[in-house]
Design goal:
This protein is mainly alpha-helical. 80% of the residues lie in helices and 0% in strands. It is built from 16 helices and no strands. It has helices spanning 6-12, 17-45, 48-66, 71-85, 87-99, 102-116, 118-134, 137-157, 172-184, 186-216, 221-245, 251-274, 283-295, 297-309, 316-340, 347-369. Helix 11 runs parallel beside helix 13. Residues 373-379 have low confidence and may be disordered.
Length: 379
C-alpha cells in the first residue's frame, strides 16, 4: 500500500529515495527473523495463539509508522510491523498442510494464492488513493484497521487445526536441531531455495519499481498502482491455471517450465535495461517482461511450497517458517542490492531479477532433479 508513497516519504524527511527504500529492507529483515520464531511456536501451542500475538503487534507497529517523526523511527516501526505480520505468512501454509495431504497441497495452495492475491491488486490502488487524499501516514492508519479486522476474523472465523498439540520442546537447541534437519533434506532445500530465489526476484521488482516507473518513466502514483495491480492479476491468473493443470499434469513438469520461463524473462529484462539508447528504456519493453516474470510466480510458489512441505506434515509450522525465513532473507539482500546499485535507470532492478530467475532454476535442477529418490511429487 505504501510503495507509491516512497518518494513522498523521502521528501518529507529530506532524505534520499534509497534511504526510503531501506524501510522495505527493514520489513524484509523482520519477516526473515520473525517467521523462524512463529513456526515452532505454532507446532507446539497451536495455530491461533501466535496469530493473535502477531496481529496485535502488527496493529501497534502500524500506528507507530503513522506517527513516526523521523525516517529512523519509521525504519524501527516497519521492522516491528514485520515481526507481527509474518505470523500471517507462516501459519496459513501450516493450516493447509494440517487439513490436506501431500497430494492435494499444491492445488489447494493455488487456491490460497487466489485469496492472497487480492491484496497485491487492491493495495497499491487503495494506497495511491489514500496518498492523494490524506498523505502517506493515512496508509499506515488503514493498515492498523486491517489488522483489527484480521483479529476479529481469526477469533470468530478460524477453527484451530492443530487440536492435539505435541509435547515437544521449543528450546533454542531443539528448534535449531529441527531446522538443521530440514536443511539437510536435499529435496526440501531444493524446493525452498527455488521458491526463495523466485520470490526474491519479485521483491527486487517491488524494491525498484516505484523509482523506475514513477521516477524514471514518469508514471503517476495512480498509474503505478494500476501497473502493479495488473502484474498481480497475472500472478493470480497463473495460479488458477496451475490449479487446473495439476489435475492432469505432473507438478514437477509444470515447475520446470515455469522456472525456465522466469530465467529467460529475467535475462530479457536485464538485456533491455542495459542495451538501450541514450533515452530511458521504453515503457513497453519494460512492462512486458515484468508482467511475465511476476505471472509465472503463480506456477512456482504453490508447487515449490507443496514440494518442500510434502514430507514434513508433523512439523509443518517449522517447515513453512524456515522456507519463509529463506525467502525473506534473500528478499532483504536483493532489496539492499537494488537500492545500493540504483543509478537512476532500470539496470539494477533488471540485473538482480535476472540473477534470481537463473538461481531459482539452478537450485531446482541441481538439488531436486538430480537428487530425486522418488520419481515425482504426486499430483
Amino acid at each position: 500500500m505504501y510503495l507509491a508513497a516512497l518518494p513522498d516519504i523521502a521528501r518529507e524527511f529530506a532524505d534520499t529515495a534509497g534511504a526510503a527504500q531501506y524501510t522495505l529492507a527493514a520489513y524484509f529483515i523482520g519477516m526473515a527473523l520473525g517467521q523462524s520464531f512463529y513456526g515452532p511456536v505454532a507446532d507446539r501451542y497451536g495455530r491461533k495463539p501466535p496469530l493473535y500475538c502477531g496481529l496485535v503487534l502488527y496493529a501497534l507497529a502500524s500506528v507507530g509508522c503513522a506517527l513516526a517523526p523521523t525516517i529512523q523511527s519509521l525504519l524501527v516501526c516497519r521492522f516491528l510491523q514485520a515481526l507481527g505480520g509474518c505470523a500471517g505468512m507462516v501459519i496459513p501454509l501450516a493450516i493447509v498442510r494440517d487439513l490436506y495431504g501431500p497430494q492435494a497441497t499444491a492445488r489447494v495452495m493455488s487456491r490460497l494464492m487466489l485469496v492472497m492475491g487480492v491484496a497485491p491488486i487492491l493495495a497499491p490502488l487503495v494506497g495511491a488513493q489514500l496518498l492523494g487524499d490524506w498523505g502517506w501516514r493515512a496508509i499506515f492508519w488503514a493498515l492498523a484497521g486491517c489488522a483489527a479486522f484480521a483479529l476479529a476474523a481469526v477469533r470468530f472465523g478460524l477453527a484451530e487445526t492443530l487440536p492435539t498439540r505435541p509435547a515437544q520442546s521449543i528450546s533454542l537447541r531443539f528448534v535449531l536441531d529441527a531446522y538443521a534437519g530440514l536443511l539437510a533434506d536435499r529435496r526440501y532445500l531444493g524446493f525452498a531455495l527455488a521458491g526463495s530465489f523466485a520470490t526474491a526476484g519479485m521483491f527486487a521488482y517491488i524494491a525498484g519499481s516505484s523509482a523506475v516507473l514513477i521516477g524514471l518513466q514518469g508514471l503517476s502514483p495512480q498509474a503505478y498502482g494500476w501497473v502493479f495491480g495488473a502484474n498481480a492479476f497475472g500472478l493470480i491468473a497463473a495460479s488458477q491455471i496451475n490449479h487446473r493443470l495439476l489435475r492432469t499434469r505432473n507438478p514437477d513438469g509444470v515447475l520446470t517450465g515455469a522456472l525456465t520461463a522466469m530465467a529467460m524473462l529475467g535475462l530479457v529484462l536485464a538485456l533491455a535495461a542495459y542495451c538501450r539508447p541514450p533515452q530511458p528504456i521504453s515503457l513497453v519493453a519494460l512492462l512486458l517482461p515484468l508482467f511475465g516474470f511476476i505471472a509465472v510466480l503463480g506456477f512456482i510458489n504453490p508447487n515449490t511450497a507443496a514440494g518442500a512441505m510434502a514430507d514434513h506434515g508433523t512439523r509443518a509450522g517449522s517447515a513453512a517458517a524456515l522456507m519463509g525465513t529463506l525467502r525473506f532473507a534473500l528478499a532483504t539482500l536483493v532489496g539492499a542490492v537494488v537500492g545500493l546499485f540504483d543509478n537512476g535507470s532500470a539496470q539494477a532492478m533488471g540485473a538482480v531479477m535476472a540473477v534470481c530467475g537463473v538461481a531459482a532454476l539452478l537450485a531446482y535442477r541441481l538439488l531436486v532433479v538430480r537428487g530425486r529418490v522418488s520419481a515425482t511429487l504426486p499430483a
